[in-house]
Every structure is written in C-alpha cells, then in structure tokens.
Amino acid sequence: MADEKKTPWWHSTVDAFDTFLRVPGTVTAKGAHVRDGIDLKRVMIMVVVALVPAALFGMYNVGLQTATLYGLEWGFWRMFFYGLLRMLPLFVVSYVVGLAIEFASSQIRGEEVNEGYLVTGFLIPLIVPVDVPLWMLALAVAFSVIFVKEVFGGTGMNIWNPALVARAFLFFSYPSSMSGSSVWVSKTWAGLGDVDAISAATPLAIAHDGAFDAATGAVGQYSFMDMFWGFIPGSTGETSVVAILLGAILLVWSGVASWKIMVSSIAGGLLVGWLGQLGGATLVPCYYQIVMGGFLFGSVFMATDPVTAAQTETGKWIYGFLVGALAVVVRLWNPGYMEGMMLAILFMNTMAPLIDHCVVSVHTSRRAKA
Amino acid sequence: MSNKLHLNKGLNIPVKGEAASVVIKSVSPDIVAVKPTDFPGLVARLLVKEGDAVKAGSPVMADKMRPQILFTSPVSGTVQSIVRGDKRKLLAVLVKADGKQDSVDFGAKAPATAEQTRNLLLTSGLWGTLVQRPYGVMANPEDTPKAIFISSFSTAPLAADEGFVLGDALADIQAGVNALAKIAPVHVSIRKEDVPFARLQNAELHIVSGPHPAGNVGVQISHIAPIKKGEIVWTVSLLHVAAIGKLVKTGKLDLMRKVAVTGPAAPQTGYVCCLPGTPVKEITSVGQDIRVVGGDVLSGENLGADGYLGFFQNQLTLLREGYEREWFGWAKPFRPKVHSSSWCYFSWLTPGKKYDMDTNLHGGPRAFVETKCFEDVTPIDIFPIYLIKACLAGDIEKMEKFGIYEVLPEDLALCDYVDPSKNEIQAIIQKGIDLMIKEMA
Predict the structure, then answer these.
(1) B35 & B127 share domain
(2) What is the predicted pLDDT for the residue at B62?
(3) C-alpha angle with apex B106: B271 to B42, nearest 5 degrees?
(4) Same domain (yes/no): B151, B217
(5) B127 plus B42 within the same structural domain
(6) Which of A76, B33, B190, B309 has the smallest number of CB atoms closer than 10 Å to its CB?
(7) SS3 assignment, position B32
(8) Is the pLDDT of residue A3 over 70?
(9) Which residues of B touch A364 (CB under 8 A)?
(10) A300-320 per-position pLDDT tens digit
(11) What share of chain B is helix, strand, coil (3-state, %, to 5)?
C-alpha cells in the first residue's frame, strides 16, 4: 500500500511530460557506470523526422490531386494548405486516441510511457485515405493500440506493426471507405457537389486493369516520372519516391532502420515483378512495382520496424526479400485486391520469429559441430 | 611468430581522464581490508579474531567448501576489526598495519610440479587469482583446466597502461607463467609484437587487436579456443601473474601494485603504488557527489568514498554523479557534451574528442527495441539478444545453446552502454550465470 500512495494514478503521465522536457536525473545503479546519450525518444524522433518529407509532400499532393480532379486553378500554397487542413484532424485523432490509451496502459502496468507511439501516431495518418471518417480512424487506432500493442506488453513486445494493423482494421471493417478507385483523392471540399461518381484511380489500380502503354511507359494518365515524384493519387505518405528516399537516407544514416531490409525488400519486389513480366502476368516493367502504391513506403518505414522485423542480420535479408516478393505476388496474381504491401508486411511480421529461429538454430548447430 | 587476431566489433568509450604516466605517490596504508566479496562465489570461513597478529601472507580466512583455499593478509599487523553486513555476512577483515611488512616465508623455489604450484598458490592466498571459465568464479583446486589464459592488456576505458605498470616486471611475469604452465598450457595475448611481453617464453602468444572488448580475456578465449560444455579454462590477470612470479622468486607475498587513478572527476590522474584493500581515501581525494569506481567505467565496482581497493583492481575511476537534468536533451540536434556511439547524434563528427562523462542514465528503462547495437559491440560469435532473453527467461537449455559458457558480464558490458532502452545487460547475464551455477552444481 505504501508504494501505491507514493505513486498517484497520474504518475506515468506526469513522468512522461516531465521526461519529455528534461532528461531524467536518474543515475546508473548497476552495470556500466556511464551510458550512451542515446535513448528511445531520440530513436523515435529520428523516424518522425525521416517521415516529415513524405508527410509534407503528401499534404501538397492531397491538394494537387483534389485540384486536378475538379479542375480547380489552385496555386502551390493553396494546395499545400488544403492538404494540411485535411490532414491535421487525422493527426490529432491518431495522437489523442493512441496516446490516451498508451498513457492509461502504462499507468496500469506502472511503467514509464514508451515513445513508440510517437512514430505509430505519425504513420497512421499517412497510410489511410484522407477522407476516412474520423470516428473510423479513432476506432482503428484504439483497436490497434489495445489489441496489437498493449495486450502484448507495449512497445517492444508487439508482434505486428501497429500502424499497419490500424490500416488493416479499416480495410477489413470498412472496405467501402478504404478501397476502390474513388477513395484516394480528397473530395470533401465544400460546395463541390456530388462527386462520388468521379473516379480517381491510383496507378496501381490502373495497372492492375491492364491499362499500360508500353510505348510511352505511362500507366493510364500517369507517366513514370509522375509516379517517381509522387504526383499521383494514393495514401498521403506513399506517393513520392523522392520524399521517401530522403527519409530512407536519414534512417540508414542514423542506423535506426536496417538498410538490409530495405534493399532486400526492393530486390524481392523487382525479382517477382520481373518474373511476372516474363510470365505474362503483367505488362508493367518490374521497377514500376517499386514506385507504384505503397511499396517503397512500406519497405522503408514499415518493414524496418525493429520490433516486428527479424532481429538477426541474416534473418533481415530473408525477411525483407520475402516482404517485397510477397507484396508483388499479391499485386500480380490476386484478382481482387491490388495492394499487397500491407498484408505482405503483416504476414512477414508473423513469420519473422520463425526466420530468426531458423537462422539461430543453424548458427548454434554449426557452432556445436565446430 | 604467433597467432594474429583482429576484432572489428566493439567500441572505445571516449571518456576523459586518462592516467598520466607518472607515479604520484606510494601509499603505506594504516588499515588494509581483506574482502571476501572480491571473490565471486566465495563463502568465507574466518580464521582470525580481533587482536590477532598477522604477517603478510598469514591466512585470515578460508573457503568454507574447500578449506584448503586460503586468503591471506597483504600486510603485517594486527586484526583490528571484522566487518559484517546483513545476516552476519562477512564483508571485510580490517588489518591494522604495523609498517614493518614482516612476511611469511613460502620458500623461494620455483615449483617443479603442478602439485607444488597448486600448494604454493593455495597457501599463499594467491589461489583466488585464478578465475574459472565458464561462470567467472574462483577456480576449483580439484580441476585441471584445458588451458590458462592471460590477457596482457586491457582495452577497457582508461585502463592502466600495462607497459607502464608491468613493463619492468617481465622476469616476475615469466616466473609466474612458468609456475602456471606446470598446471596447464598457458596462452598469453599481447597487443602488439613489440611490447615487452612478446618476449615471454613457455606460453603460446596471441596478438589481438581491435577496439574494446578485444582486451577482455573472455573475448580472446572465444576466438582462440571456444569453451564447450564440460570444458574448463582458467584465467589470471597479468598483475597477478607478476605477483605469483614474485612469490616464486622471493618466497614472499607481495601484492604491491601501481593503481591508475583516472576519470573526469579525478583531482589528479596518474599512478599510485599501493596494496589491494587500501582505503580509497588514501589513494585519492574524493569530493562531494563523486562516484569512485574500482576498475573501469563499464564493469567496475562502486566502492564508495569510504571503500577499499578490490583484490583484482588496479584502477580507480572517479565520476561525477549525473543528477543534473538537461532540458530537451533528447530533442536537441546537437549535444556536444554527451557522447553517443549512435549516429542519431553527432559525436561521429569529433572522433578524437574525450567526454566529461557522468553517471546519468540518459533516459529511462524500456523494452528492447533496437538490438543490432548489441551485435555491433560484441565480437563474440553469439547472438547477444538471444542470450540475454534466455537469461531473462531463466531457460538453462537456451542459455547453453546461445553461449552462456563463453561470456561473463564484462564481455557484454558495452551492451549496457549502447542500449537505447537502458536495460541492465550485465546484471541480466550475471543472473543467468548464477542460475547456471545453481542448477548445474
């Protein structure tokens, strides 16, 4: 009882804000007497910083796509601020709901609040349709944080990437708001009238329907360079290869994410894309698979989550390769659903411990023989 | 000439306060402590009572299980007091020195057989210098090890320079090696080909280079002759090989050593000649909120300002306690005063810089998230995170599989340092080892 009195129910919350502002004055009690300056707050903020280019570009692109769809004569800043205004509520809902649950469960466990949600909360708005109703988003966030993270013991203990599970939850629970050719461009601009009929299919969907012009290399109305720079419909964070690569450079540079996973995932995607091309499953060249849809965003920001990815270095090569390969397999040989990245990563999250188990077993038996 | 080994993984921690190559003073302390807590796994039986007169080399306690292992006083004088802790656990025997340094004569004769070496070490109190691997406990006199390993150098932060400390004691070291070689083949690792210890005979030499923990004997063993289940090797520090050599040559126990006084908070760095068990305060002055670490900053023991130098220690590191709270520490782009081996900060821009480190944890404890950082600082062919988790789970079979026989906490000490989740890796490994000892006994 004495302990309970000392730590009031708001302790975790107070502590979270306190340590957010100031490094705790805790000194080492056992083990090494001096410690590295790095902590999880720094690690997580690096990921958020790496996401910023994709997020900023995505906001501009939200405006751009809406303006294009309606034929509006908007300038750059108008497009950007439109996107910003459309995205802000998503960020607010994602963080408020997610952090509230995170704080509450930290308190129940009597632990300090973990920083993992800083990243998850930033990722979720970037991978859902801009127009997703906020209550749906709140529900998805709550489901994912509670059932994918907290029940396992919080950040570091989860099996699946919580941001992707939030997306999967929306996808399977509310497919009409999450899939089809009309959800990926924001259409809730006041006074635009009934526009549900207007299609704004993503290049991935267009390519899936076979509309690929081999002469110009264009997928529907989108050229390869459109897809590379990101001037295409899609979820906010995923469209621009350039912005994602900027983030990737930071992640690899800082060592926060594994370059092995990124490289092997792209290799897996290219290989299966190429096989698909050879076998006649698609006309689209294999490197299009990398720039279309959420492939690169998933490879760089989702598959590399150190908690849910494989942990052994050999395992990372295998894991990444299979993520990329499976994603493109789903894209090419699945009649109904054209984006395989989300399910490929979630599936490989599930398989990651098995991969590690095999790698470690091979290693230990080799050592035992030596 | 010999086997070369270069290790790439590891990290040299750039902490300020390297010992200047000068002998500051020589201390003949008034009180010297003999501490059973210096010897892992020892349950001691007291052999003296308050007021007893002792010589340097007189037994003051013995191992309760194996009473032939004696622990002796490093000075002559009288037993002043017996210090006990909770449950009357013996913490120290304090000997008041008489300044005469009368020694027990063990006979100045090089041992001709393994039996003679064993007996000499057992009676002189130097048996405790032999550390058994696996588990890092005191060697068992009944065992014959596969080999005896000696690391002639330390790569630990601010460690004493072995050339300065023992460069002139080559003859003693050779005598020590000769005595130990009676028991089992001796392996000595050296830093370079041109160090004095490269001239040692009667031992297999290995040149080992690389960042810390390349100088750790455990890391060297794992590359030279990995320990398998059921195998036993012994390790001795070079310091104690020299003491064994002196004992063989003179017949007297002489544990006098040059102790490196180091660290950012040391008032004066340099070397102090003193005995193990010397009060810290006689070696160096200790200010307010200063932590005195016996040994290095990674695996050293917090001695406290009123403590005594440990039996195995030849280094003191003085650190400021890091109670200070830095505003927005983690969020600042630059933190020039804090070192980080991670590229999330910018310490890599100033590779030669030494840091005024303190004992702040720089964060709060979290679950494991980043785990590659452990592998990057562990030059042993194991998966550190799997071993750590097996220790946490207390799973004997997995600990065995993942290499518990090959490591001591000190070999994974850098994991403590680099972990962004601030887990106590060394404590976890020690817990695993303790469990192994209990279960495998």
Answers:
(1) no
(2) 95
(3) 65
(4) yes
(5) no
(6) A76
(7) strand
(8) no
(9) 401-402
(10) 999 999 999 999 999 999 999
(11) 30, 20, 50
Smallest Cβ–Cβ distance between A37 and the set B293, B338, B425 belongs to B338
Domain end, chosen from B70, B97, B124, is at B97
Q: Which domain holds residue B371?
A: 361-440
Give the model confidence (pLDDT) of A152-168 as tens digits. Answer: 988 888 999 999 999 99
Residue B351, number of CB atoms within 10 A of its CB: 7
Nearest by CB to B418, from A25, A36, A157: name it. Answer: A36
Same domain, B197 and B80: no
Hey, which residues 64-123 in chain A have their CB within 8 Å of chain B?
112, 114-116
Task: Answer yes or no: is B277 within a domain.
Answer: no
| In contact, B295 and B237? CB cutoff 8 Å | no
**Partner B, chain A 233-262, Cβ-Cβ below 8 Å:** 253-256, 258
Interface of A with B in 333-362 (CB under 8 A): 360
In this structure, the answer to whether residues B135 and B206 fall within a common structural domain is yes
Question: Does one domain contain both B89 and B197?
Answer: no
Residue B293 · residue B319 · CB < 8 Å = yes
The Cα–Cα gap between A336 and A208 comes to: 10
Instruction: Report the distance separating Cα A325 and Cα A340, nearest Å.
Output: 10
| Tens-place pLDDT, residues B115-164 | 999 999 999 999 999 999 999 999 999 999 999 999 999 999 999 999 99
What digits encode the pLDDT tens for the residues A175-199? 877 776 677 887 765 455 555 555 6
- Using the Cβ of A216 and the Cβ atoms of chain B, whether some distance falls under 8 Å is answered with no
ipTM surpasses cut 0.85 = yes
- B47-75 mean pLDDT: 94
Q: Output the pLDDT for position A7.
A: 58
Q: Find where tokens 């690389």 sit.
A: B210
Mean pLDDT, all residues of chain B: 93
pLDDT confidence band for B220 (50 / 70 / 90): very high
CB contact, 8 Å: A314 with chain B? no
**Strand B204-209 relative to strand B3-6: parallel, antiparallel, unpaired?**
parallel
Burial classification of residue B417, based on how many CB atoms lie within 10 Å of its CB (0-12 exposed, 13-18 middle, 19 or more buried): buried
CA distance A27 to chain B (A): 4
pLDDT per residue as tens digits for the range B328-367? 888 888 888 899 999 999 888 888 899 999 999 998 888 9
Within an 8 Å CB–CB cutoff, is residue A313 touching chain B? yes
Q: From the CA of A25, how many Å to the nearest CA of chain B?
A: 5
Q: Among residues B97, B121, B146, which one ends one of the domains?
A: B97
Task: Say how many domains are in chain B.
Answer: 3
Residues B59 and B93 both lie in one domain = yes
